[in-house]
Amino acid sequence: MSGYKHGAYGSISDSVISAANSSQSVPFVVGTAPVNLIRGYANANIINSPVYITDMGAKNVIGYSEDWDKFTLCEMLSALFDNANGNIGPAFFVNVLDPAVHKKSAQTTKSLTFTNGSASITSDTIILDTFALAGKTEGTDYNLDYSFNTGKVLITSVDNDTPLTGTIQASYYEVDTTGITEDTIIGSVSAEGVYTGLQCGKLVYPNYDAIITYIAAPKWSERKAVYDAMVNFCQAINDHWYAMPYADIPVEGVVNVSEAAVSDHEVVIGDAKAILSSVVVYETGTSTVMKEGTDYTAEKTASGVTITLLSGGSYYAADKVDVEYKSTVDTLALAKDWQTNKGYNSMYTKVFWPQAKTANGKVYHLSTLALAETLRVDASHDGIPMETCSNKSVPVAAQYFGAESKNQGFDQSQGNTLNAVGITTLVKWGGSWRLWGPHTAAFEAGADGNAKPDVNPLGIFDTNMRMQEYIINSFEADHGDDVDEPMDRNLKDTIVEVEQQKLDSLVAQGALIGEPVITFVESENTIGDLINGNFTWNIVDTPTPAAKSLTAKVAYTDAGFTSYFGEEE
Predict the structure, then answer these.
(1) Are strands 432-436 and 423-429 parallel, antiparallel or unpaired?
(2) Whole-number pLDDT of residue 404
(3) CA distances from 198 to 66, 69, 211, 472 (A)
(4) Which residues of 453-486 are buried (b: 16+ CB within 10 A; e: fewer)?
(5) Rounded to the nearest 5 degrees, what angle is found at the Cα of 426, between the Cα atoms of 420 and 427?
(6) Residue 542 β-bridge partners
(7) Largest CA distance in the chain
(8) When you count CB atoms within 10 A of the terminal residue's CB, does the N or C end of the chain come out lower?
(9) Do residues 451 and 445 lie in contact, with contact meaning Cβ atoms separated by under 8 Å?
(10) What is the rounded distance in angstroms from the CA atom of residue 205 to the CA atom of residue 404?
(11) DSSP state, residue 195
(12) Which residues of the chain have pLDDT under 50?
């Protein structure tokens, strides 16, 4: 934020600690959706633009597919609007997939056999607007539709009296999501005012008058660059609003090895958890992908992967290559190492691991399920983020650690070791699977189990941070109309009175404890500040802590034996 201010502002100040003791919620989700299945997608304002979604009718707005790896927004659609715990929303979605850009270079051709005047194609990658039937005209000879229930393209004859028959050649382009990168998700704002990716969040308030409170990017938040971008973006969106990102530690994390040394035409990746099928080899310093089988072969070994450059390939003489692969992050120790090494520890975020699997095989990122449950508890408190999503049941059947993992799971006791370093997880308790961990990603427990002294108190519980953000956003939203009004003493006092009433109300609702107060003090408002029209109020509050542990101390006594010797009636 620049030094010049014009508007109503807020910021999170240093915590005020007296003793050193040892919704309406608005989610913003960025990713990919199968907009290629929407007719007229190019003019529907569904690419790099916030789309307001309220229910599963979103299928007809941004498309839907069960392939959540390709189409990541569909996972969030399912969690919010097809949830056995009950649907919750609304939310803003930004799709970055542009079928005109992210498509295969060659057309797909297929011979269709028409029966009773109709034929179908099973595909979620077809760009419907590019479909053509040889020698036929849409609207005159055939109609084109898509069934999201079956995942099929439906081609039906216009005239039932003279239906299409026999075999007819169809052609169309398909989307290719492999061209979508971290930079695509992070996005940018051009000099011409064109917004893409995460940066589209800046359009939500001016276009919809809505304040983002949570940020998610299923699958993509596992990438360090995206996580960092979310952390930076969540602080003062539009120079004003605060939000909390929900992010994941991967179960299969992407690892990049730059300038890997080639010795005797071989590159050794010493990572026993490396997934062979995920290995991609690049010409050093470029995005040029080497061809497996032509330029190199890759073999799984006990210690990792060995890449051999082939004599007939173009890179046989290379002394360095760049390698990208996925490594299985399927143990508690590896998850903790990932969090530490990648720096997934901002107090502005919640971080989750592993993933969750349903009885019918769907795999969710925990951040996706957690966002749905957070919205649910916020709604139960009229939008006040006073309760954590921890210990809330989710409709899943098991912990999930990746297709190649042998991990059979862990219990609450082991899950607590993740909580102790700020990772929220999934455990079985009371007959249901529950989100487990009330902390932000910055939490770290000391030897006594309490937060280490250097942990900011705001980072101890997610509700601490979320309540501060709520108070800031409320102050700015409520007093924006006061900007540029004459700041006489009456207006100054009125702002104090209004905000104090809000703080007192939060105490009455159980969101804050003690006696929160707002003050207007001379030391924060110098004559120079006042001359320039800059006025500052200080708010000091204590969010209600979560009941993280409840302990009953039970002691044995022999006093009960005296009952044998009492007088008989």
Answers:
(1) antiparallel
(2) 86
(3) 23, 19, 15, 22
(4) eebbbbbbbbbbbbbbbbbbbbbbbebeebeeee
(5) 90
(6) 513
(7) 107
(8) C
(9) yes
(10) 43
(11) B
(12) 1, 6, 15-23
Q: Which amino acid is at 379?
A: A
- Percentages of the chain per state (helix, strand, coil), in multiples of 5: 25, 25, 45
Residue range 71-102, pLDDT digits in tens: 999 999 999 999 999 999 999 999 999 999 99
Q: Residue 460 pairs with which residues in a beta bridge?
A: none
pLDDT at 20: 33
Which sign does the torsion angle of CA 488, 494, 499, 504 carry? positive
| N-term to C-term CA, the chain | 83
SS (H, E, C) 357-385: ECCCCCEEEHHHHHHHHHHHHHHHCCCCC
CA distance 404 to 327: 10
Beta-strand relationship, 274-283 and 244-248: unpaired
SS (H, E, C) 476-502: HHHHHHHCCCCCCHHHHHHHHHHHHHH
What pLDDT sits at residue 12? 63
Q: Which residue has the tokens 């799709």?
A: 95
Mind spelling out the 3-state secondary structure of 535-558?
CCCEEEEEECCCCCCCCCCCCCCC
Beta-carbon contacts of residue 370 (< 8 Å; ≥ 6 apart): 246, 350, 352, 389, 424, 435
On whether the CB atoms of residues 387 and 381 are closer than 8 A, the answer is: yes
Both tokens of 444, joined, read: 């770290």
556-565 per-position pLDDT tens digit? 999 999 999 9
Chain centroid, CA 504 distance in Å? 33
Q: What is the pTM of this model?
A: 0.91
